[in-house]
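input
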Amino acid sequence: MTDGKLQGVHHKDDLLVFLHNHHLPDNLVQPMYEMLLAQASTGPRFQERCGRCHESAADLARESLVVRDGVLQGRESGRPVAQFLPRHAKLGLTPEEVTFFTDLLTRVEREVH
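output
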């Protein structure tokens, strides 16, 4: 990323044009760019904090999470993730971490589904 703009290794000027010219349907170019931008701008907090038990945020979202009525929930339990996270993990999560991980997992759930 440079100045908040995503760049490719070989395509530094306009990654959107590159994505458009490489077999993505027009309706997926902007969402793909936004997904890659979000991934590039998000630090490794999930891996650092959750990686001992969860392989990746994408795997967790794909297998165990769903957004229903705009709320991220456990797929089987139906329990809102934001209510579950404060007591999740051995050390618990701070309110800031709950917000961060709920937002991150909500974004990732949309990307994988």
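quick obs: The mean pLDDT is 90.
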